[in-house]
Specification:
The protein contains 11 helices and no strands. By secondary structure, it is mostly helical. The chain has a single domain, classed as Orthogonal Bundle (Tetracycline Repressor, domain 2). The longest helix is centred in the middle third of the chain and has 27 residues. The chain is globular. It starts with a helix and ends with a helix.
């Protein structure tokens, strides 16, 4: 039997998919603790009983959101790996940063969820580390794609740290956009240009 997440993906115009999209955004903005099912229902234009009918409780919906974000990220990483295969390291990093930067800026909830999981502590029974088991896999895959590791399974701590540095910088630039732009008093286009330029300088320069 198909899961609610699979059903939402099969029919992107459905009520189930609309709820998922709203939940992705609100959980990304306010975190698990700061988001209520009533907030999600109101934003989706439905009543609370309809939300529970389609997704169960808040924890079930949150888990679906995390799996959806992880799967979407995995697909993007595979796409990037195909584009950079066989190229020189600095070119691989340049292309990968371009692709991931644009992808994350179009899907800021991915970075927001990641940042929340860095710092959020909870006293509920819900495991907010849903999906964290895939993080080591992502790091190793990226290290291998970048040519920083000879295999996917045995990336050295040094290689992993370089990947973590790169991804952490990306997530912080995306998640902190509004705050950083207010400090620098620049528009979104200029912010994105400068952020991408800075990311490339600090990630590519050491390999030249």
């Amino acid at each position: 039997m198909a899961t609610p997440l699979e059903k939402a993906r099969r029919n992107p115009d459905s009520v189930k998919a609309r709820i998922l999209g709203v939940a992705r955004k609100l959980f990304g903005q306010y975190g698990f603790q700061g988001t209520t099912t009533r907030m999600i229902a109101k934003e989706a234009g439905i009543d609370i009983s309809t939300l529970h009918y389609h997704w169960g409780d808040k924890g079930d919906l949150f888990e679906a959101v995390i799996h959806d974000l992880n799967d979407e990220t995995r697909v993007k990483l595979i796409e990037i790996e195909k584009k950079i295969k066989g190229k020189e390291l600095t070119e691989r990093i340049d292309i990968a940063l371009d692709e991931m930067f644009d992808f994350l800026f179009e899907n800021p909830e991915i970075s927001n969820h990641t940042i929340f999981r860095y710092f959020t502590q909870t006293t509920t029974d819900l495991d907010l580390n849903i999906g964290l088991s895939s993080v080591p896999e992502y790091i190793s895959d990226i290290a291998y794609s970048m040519g920083l590791s000879e295999t996917r399974r045995e990336a050295s701590p040094e290689a992993q740290m370089k990947v973590i540095f790169m991804m952490n910088a990306l997530h912080n630039f995306v998640s902190g956009e509004i705050f950083f732009r207010s400090i620098m008093k620049i528009d979104r286009e200029e912010y994105r240009r400068l952020a991408k330029e800075t990311l490339k300088f600090y990630n590519i320069a050491p390999y030249k």
